[in-house]
Design brief:
Strand order of the largest sheet: 1-2-3-5-4
Oligomer: single chain
Strand content: 5-15%
Shape: rod-shaped
Order of helices and strands: HHHHHHHHEHEEHEE
Largest sheet: 5 strands, mixed
Radius of gyration: 44 Å
Number of strands: 5
């Protein structure tokens, strides 16, 4: 039975030991709460006082580990103390047991003990006053309030403050966790955006370099080799410039020494000219219905430019002989973009791809709440590969 009791805390042991020693000191000095000839003293003499004192000290050992059991036993001990000459330390330890039962006990006990002790305090004033009709009878209720209700109310206040502090700590931890999740998501999104930018900027130039270098190595014609080397040099310089621009943006976000501007629809002519120099037969048809490219939001311009760039890169790597068509239309608050290229390969050299081009184009369109479809279609000129994107131009936050 004793082995089933929880082990008391060191601080509780010190409180019990201090209370026991203090009570023994008062007992040794012969200081009791009442005189031996008072009518309430049922067990006169000095020795009966020690029994409630020792029991109360034992209850102090369980003030935190078993507060409800300690309160029940302590209540019986304090009533037993009332039938003896009494010891002030026994009553003081009883107030601490009540305080601990509210502070460390279950929530139900924390609510019930202050109510019960409050009712006892009121009853301790009303009943004696109704019986004896003297003002001094009210002091009984005051004594009950000081001994029982005051420590219970104090314990409830301290417990409420402790619970509020714990709730605030948990809320702070949740806020920190949400902030960390937002930071990780932001970093992941930024990495994905950087990966798209890097792929779209460099893939076109590297594909042209790979194709023309393969041609230069496979054909033993000085004129063809010289022409391929010129294209390789041109795409190498352009790719290096794009790479420096991206690195400059990553290093300096203050805007004072910002590198080259973000690509816009005005740069499509240069993009198509570069594709033609790489060997593609490209036609460009831009119609904005009276609107200028300056009226198109910057994110939409960048997305359209990158989709055209990636589509031309795929046409350079995979399209068959024939014309590549790029068509841009603006109507009803949206920018419509179509890039078609002949299906069917040719015998020329090919560049390996990572397969991230279509994924990147769809991500760009989705971020702007647009749509993108890519696939083979039948046309009057034969089987073609078509990339069709619709990008809203209305003002609003990206998805």
């Amino acid at each position: 039975m004793l082995s089933a009791l929880p082990r008391p805390r060191r601080f509780d042991v010190l409180i019990a030991l201090a209370g026991l020693l203090g009570g023994l000191l008062l007992w040794g000095l012969g200081l009791g709460s009442r005189a031996a000839d008072e009518p309430v003293v049922v067990w006169p003499g000095r020795w009966p006082v020690l029994v409630p004192l020792v029991v109360m000290a034992g209850c102090e050992l369980l003030r935190r580990t078993a507060p409800r059991q300690a309160l029940l036993v302590a209540t019986a001990a304090v009533f037993a103390d009332l039938l003896t000459q009494g010891n002030l330390v026994t009553v003081v330890m009883f107030t601490d047991v009540i305080y601990a039962s509210v502070l460390y006990g279950p929530p139900a006990a924390a609510r019930r003990v202050p109510r019960v002790t409050g009712i006892m305090s009121v009853a301790g004033m009303v009943v004696p006053y109704a019986m004896w009709r003297v003002p001094e009878a009210l002091l009984i209720g005051v004594a009950v309030g000081v001994v029982a209700f005051a420590p219970a109310a104090t314990g409830l206040i301290v417990r409420n403050h402790r619970d509020a502090a714990e709730a605030a700590r948990l809320a702070a931890e949740r806020t920190a966790l949400l902030a960390e999740m937002d930071r990780v998501q932001a970093v992941t999104a930024e990495r994905a955006r950087m990966a798209r930018e890097l792929h779209d900027m460099v893939a076109n130039h590297l594909s042209a370099i790979a194709i023309h270098s393969t041609a230069a190595l496979s054909l033993d014609e000085p004129a063809t080799t010289r022409q391929a080397l010129g294209v390789i040099r041109e795409n190498s310089v352009a790719g290096l410039a794009e790479m420096r621009r991206l690195i400059g943006i990553l290093r300096d976000g203050s805007g004072d020494g910002e590198p080259a501007a973000t690509p816009t629809l005005d740069g499509l002519d240069a993009l198509v000219a570069s594709a033609r120099s790489n060997g593609l037969d490209v036609s460009l048809d831009v119609s904005l219905d009276g609107d200028s490219p300056a009226g198109v939001p910057a994110p939409v311009e960048l997305a359209a430019y990158r989709i055209v760039q990636e589509s031309l890169t795929n046409a350079l790597k995979h399209a068959g002989p024939g014309r590549v068509s790029v068509v841009l239309r603006a109507c009803e608050g949206a920018l419509s973009l179509t890039v078609t290229s002949p299906c069917g390969g040719h015998d020329g050299p090919r560049a390996p791809g990572s397969g991230a081009g279509l994924v990147g184009m769809r991500e760009r369109a989705t971020l702007l709440r647009g749509t993108l479809r890519a696939g083979a279609e039948d046309s009057p000129d034969g089987r073609v590969w078509a990339v069709r994107a619709t990008l809203p131009t209305a003002e609003g936050d990206p998805a």
